[in-house]
Design brief:
single chain, Rossmann fold, seven-stranded parallel β-sheet, 11 helices, 46% helix, globular, binds nicotinamide-adenine-dinucleotide
């Protein structure tokens, strides 16, 4: 028997990157999976591939999320795991974020996670009452504890996701619902493609990472599979952080990715740290997969 046989899971942002890897891994372990995404095309592509259900929704809209979760529950015949993964990012000097950009980043990353919990809990409770163990897995980020320069709203939102996870573990433990979160480091997806185009950036990340390389979406997915499964039946309120030079190896901190990138540029273009960071990521504003500001 596979590890998630009998489980019924929703994965938000399941149409791309880490969410798609989670949807595939959960299905491979025997779960029924509903792929929720802003993009109909991406949700359908992944759902078709794994024999799941595709639902188009914006996680920011609470009523739409209620409906999407209810539709997924009806299609699957229940819900035992909610994976709140949908997210977007952006890099700007803190004072240059517009209020609209701030709202968007907080809305998708933090409110979207809250909406997912809010819509899923009644169904997860029902599963719990019927003797089917239930859980929530939130996808946060190491930026929630150690943001890099330019990530102010993203880091703040992800810190909120980590706090939300701990509150959820306390509140829903008595209902038999476990709530955990996974904080990936630097994973190659549409969200980070811009940075993988700069070899010095990737080298700097890898040099400061205990295993000497960046992780993959599949490696994040494997941890989510564990947390969603019954082998983790006594695991709740846990925050799993991937990597990292900044979280584990303080001595490497000086060699930040930004510094490496600056070194790779002609001296004439090194004006100030802030400007350089902004320039370096000029091709990347709000991630290509998210709603634009
Ligand atoms: N890639 C990384 O290095 C990394 C690191 C840490 C955390 N994360 C987190 O992992 C999660 C997945 O990121 P990814 O790298 O796979 O990104 P991605 O851009 O590849 O995928 C994100 C998916 O979320 C969907 N989405 C965006 N906004 C949405 C909305 N409002 N409603 C519904 N769906 C929406 C997109 O359509 C897309 O399919 C995010 O929460 C991200 O913050 C990623």
């Amino acid at each position: 028997m596979r590890g998630l046989t009998g489980k019924r899971a929703i994965v938000t942002g399941g149409g791309s990157g880490i969410g798609a890897a989670i949807a595939r891994a959960m299905a491979a372990e025997g779960a029924e999976v509903a792929v929720l995404d802003l993009s109909r095309e991406r949700a359908e592509a992944v759902a078709d591939e794994i024999g799941g259900t595709a639902i188009t929704v914006n996680v920011v809209d609470p009523e739409a999320m209620d409906q999407a979760v209810a539709d997924a529950v009806e299609a699957m015949g229940g819900l035992t795991c909610m994976v709140n993964n949908a997210g977007i990012g952006s890099l700007e000097p803190m004072h240059e974020y517009t209020p609209k950009q701030w709202d968007l980043l907080l809305d998708v990353n933090l409110k979207g996670t809250f909406n997912g919990v809010r819509s899923a809990v009644p169904h997860l409770r029902e599963s719990g009452r019927a003797g089917r163990p239930a859980s929530v897995v939130n996808i946060a980020s190491v930026s929630g504890i150690r943001p890099t320069r330019g990530e102010a709203p993203y880091g703040a939102a992800k810190a909120g996701v980590i706090a939300l996870t701990m509150s959820g573990a306390l509140e829903y433990g008595p209902d038999g619902i476990r709530v955990n979160c996974v904080s990936p480091g630097f994973i190659r997806t549409a969200l980070t493609e811009f940075a993988f185009a700069v070899p010095a950036y990737v080298e700097a990340i890898e040099a400061g990472t205990p295993l000497g390389r960046t992780g993959t979406a599949e490696e994040v997915a494997d941890v989510v599979v564990f947390l969603a499964g019954d082998q983790a039946r006594f695991v709740t309120g846990v925050k799993i952080y991937f990597r990292s030079h900044s979280t584990l190896l303080p001595s490497m901190r000086k060699r930040t990715a930004a510094k490496c990138l600056r070194r790779s540029r002609p001296t004439s273009s090194r004006s100030s740290k802030t400007t350089t960071t902004r320039e370096m990521f000029a091709n990347w504003r709000t991630s290509s997969n998210g709603p634009s500001s």
